[in-house]
Every structure is written in structure tokens, then in C-alpha cells.
Amino acid sequence: MIEFSRNKIIALAQLKWCKHFGWVKGHAGIEGNELMDRLAKRTAVEDGPVVYDKMPREVIITREKENGLYMWQRQWTNSGKGALTKAFFPSVRNRLRQKIPIFPDVTTMVTEHGKIRSYIHRFGLIDNPKCPSDEEEEEEEEEEEEEETTNHLIFHCNILRKQRNEMTKK
Fold first, then answer.
1. Cα gap 142→138, rounded to integer Å
2. When comparing pLDDT for 40 and 64, which is higher?
3. Rounded CA separation 92/36 (Å)
4. Cβ neighbours of residue 35 under 8 Å, at least 6 residues apart?
5. What's the rounded Cα separation, in Å, for the pair 42 and 7?
6. Distance CA 130, CA 158 (A)
7. How many CB atoms lie within 10 A of CB 141?
């Protein structure tokens, strides 16, 4: 049997021998496979562990994505802004996994920036931030008007009662 060693393989490489590496079914009687298995085991034992100085690209990408998500979550959690949006989406990772179509009404509801009377009133574009509730129901119930906010629209608005009841049933 020919004795191979790491040094002999290196010597062959220096002689510009062509090397081909590929997967071979183990213990199937393929010539040279058993010899290579023994060589690999002996090299691992004699030469100690091989230390590679390169890392697969995918590992680097995955680690950097994880690091980016961690830093983003930390900033998101520590920010004093966006309280309503954080109530809807406390976890950056979970929000990214959700398939929510982004259109103006959704953005308005989760940020309270948009076509909500309380938001428009802050800029002095309208005089009254109160919700224009159904006048008939308002007269009957004698309730005080509420500011038109996301919370009001989702949970209390008389105008949206029918839609709210349908969603509750579903």
C-alpha cells in the first residue's frame, strides 16, 4: 500500500498535479476511497484540527442580518417616539414576517399620521379634532364627543360600529 501523507499531497500539488474532489458513496468498493478515508482520519489525529481562516459568505450574511435586527430592535424599544406603532408592532422581527399590504389607511391607523382629525387639528388645518359621529345616535345617547384618534376609530366610533361588529364576528 502506498503511504500518503499531507506532505506528499503538498509535494504533488507543487508538481502541478491535477486534483479533483467530489462526493463518493462511502464503503461501496470504490478504489481509493478507503485509502482516502484512512488518510483523512490519520491527518486529523496526527496534524491536529485544521483551522480555516475563511467563513462562508452565507454565514457572514446571516450573522450581519441578525446583528442588524438586534440593533434595530434595541433602538425601536428605547425610542420615545412611535408609542402607538410600537403597540401594534412591539417586535421588529415579527413585523418583518407579517405580510401586511402597506397603503395610506393602514399607515394612518398604525401611526396616527394622516387623515385623522386629531392629527390634522394639530397643524391648525381644522378647528375641531372631535369625531363627526352620527348626529342621531349622539342626540339619543347624549355622549360627549371624543377626539378622532386610532383608538377611538377602532373601539368607539359610532360611524364604524357596523364594520367593527362584522370584524368581531369574524
1. 6
2. 64
3. 49
4. 1, 2, 4
5. 13
6. 13
7. 11
129 close to 148: Cβ distance less than 8 angstroms: yes
* Phi and psi torsions of 130, nearest 5°: -75, 150
| This model's pTM is above 0.85 | no
CA angle (58, 62, 67) in 5-degree steps = 150
Burial status of residue 95 (CB atoms within 10 A of its CB: 0-12, 13-18, 19 or more) = middle
**pLDDT one-digit tens code per residue, 53-104:** 677 888 889 999 999 999 999 999 999 999 999 999 999 999 999 988 889 9
Alpha helices in 17-170 (DSSP H): 33-46, 57-78, 83-88, 92-97, 104-111, 117-122, 135-141, 150-155, 161-169
Burial class (CB in 10 A: 0-12, 13-18, 19+), 133: buried
Contact 4, 41 (CB under 8 A): no
Instruction: Tell me the domain boundaries of the chain.
Output: 6-46, 100-169
